[in-house]
Amino acid sequence: CFSHLRKDLRALSIISFRFWITPFLGSLLSPLIVANMGQETNVDPDVEAVSAQQQDAKASSFEIDKPNEKENAADYAVDGNNSENPLPRASFPAVIGAWFRKQMNQSHTRSSSSALNEKLVDDDSGEIGGSLKNATASTPLLHKVLFATMAAGLALGVYLHRYSITDFDPFVDWSQKLNVAFVGNAYFFINDIPRVMESMSEGHIFQQSVIHSSEGSLPSLLLRGNGMYQTWQTNESIITTSYVNNDGDDETIYDFGLCTVAQLLTGSDDILTYGNNNKAYYNDELNPCISDETYFDYTYDYLAEVTFSWDYVVLVDQTKRVAIKSARQNSIYALTYAYGPLIAKTKAIPVIVDTHSFWSESTNMTGLGDIEYFQALIAQGASDYVKALTDILPEEQTPVVAPVGVAYLTIYEERPDLWEKLFIDDGIHASLHGSYVFACVLYGTMYGHLPRRHSGQSIENLFAKSRMLVGQYDLKFPTRSEASYYRNVARRVALGGHVPGNLRKLIEQLNTVEEEDLAEDGVEDEGKL
Fold first, then answer.
1. Is 93's pLDDT higher than 90?
2. Which helix (H) or strand (E) holds 98?
3. How far apart are CA 25 and CA 149, in angstroms?
4. What is the rounded CA–CA span in Å between residue 397 and residue 293?
5. Residue 491, exposed/middle/buried by CB under 10 A (0-12, 13-18, 19+)?
6. What is residue 98's predicted lDDT score, i.e. its pLDDT?
7. 478 — alpha (psi -120 to 50), left (phi > 0) or beta?
8. Whole-model pTM?
9. DSSP string of 312-339, one letter each residue
10. What is the pLDDT at residue 290?
11. Sign of CA dihedral 466, 470, 475, 477
């Protein structure tokens, strides 16, 4: 506990220093102000004489035994050259602080003395000197100027770092490890979300996946399995170049992930064969185990050596299938009778990705409405998926939703200029900006806190191990300020439960309509019975 606390306090001090810099710049005038405080005021000679008599009387009345000058110098020395009592030289901040206090004390002493003298003059003659008025009035004014300057600097610092201030958690265990299984489609494939999550967690997430780049609905994944055989044969995907095949030759093994949903979630699949001779799966020639005998052998060797238990199983379905009620029924059936029983064996918590809405002329948008209505339909579908799994899983495996679509919609309403940057040219799939938002929301959903803050260079490093980046010849990573805003949105949505007001109203309206439809269906069924 003390070790973690020490690290957290160090991080807090670094962030506090960043917030302090800007207010400090606003207070650069303070030495001039203090210097003015330290200037002698012009006091009439008669008043100065009265003041001197008062000081002598005060000194004689309250004089006590004092240490000799030599001892006093040794005790309070700031010069390390003191030969009789050498002390370390005082630090620069300490010297400045002592000088500042000295100036303030002198100013206060002069002001108090002048005020007392003026009272005496007023009692004796009924007149107050104009110079004494200025002496007593100048100090409060200078204090106000100093305070206003520093307050303005502080306000500016808070504004400039407003996202960083709300993005700090001093009690995070950064060493926590998670095992995460990914089952999905292009939402995972584009920019390689599984590996981005590995990098974002600094290697504390262990992941495996079954992803299909084109036919990636949840029902289709059960029938086809992995579909990355041709897509992920890249240099970044290479695991080894010296895997010995059945003929004794060295072959290159690429990281395609595991081959079927059953293999991923349970560690084995007895009906999977090279060449699919038993017709157990639909062969689209994209499954690496069906198409490549060496990879089939490698996968079984890998599973024999590696044992793992999943903490989370992240599921993403095709967006329009989630949104359209008639289309989502097949996915709900697959969740109830296939995914649910498999996930129950893993003891893992399922994570349903609330995908983002979009508008594109390259696909049929009939019945999806505008961006907000489309997102409400997606939210309703994700809720149905959660209910389907909740009905068959134990309480400790209650599904959760990763509100990626809600984050996208929040950006759409607050920063339309950045919302456009979340997409590649097709207007559907995520750019590097969109993938960063996706990863931050998913990380926050699973860990309960945000990942470490990233600068421009470190954001590029998050994608350095991706097996393929979309638009790799024109990559545009988020800037530092953009990344800070995206993180703030992820915090509000994934950790704070933020839902845009219009989306909340639309979801309520859809739920009301669904309840009315169910009630009508119930009356019709009762009449038939």
1. no
2. helix 92-125
3. 10
4. 36
5. buried
6. 63
7. beta
8. 0.70
9. EEEE---HHHHHSHHHHHHHHHHIIIII
10. 97
11. negative
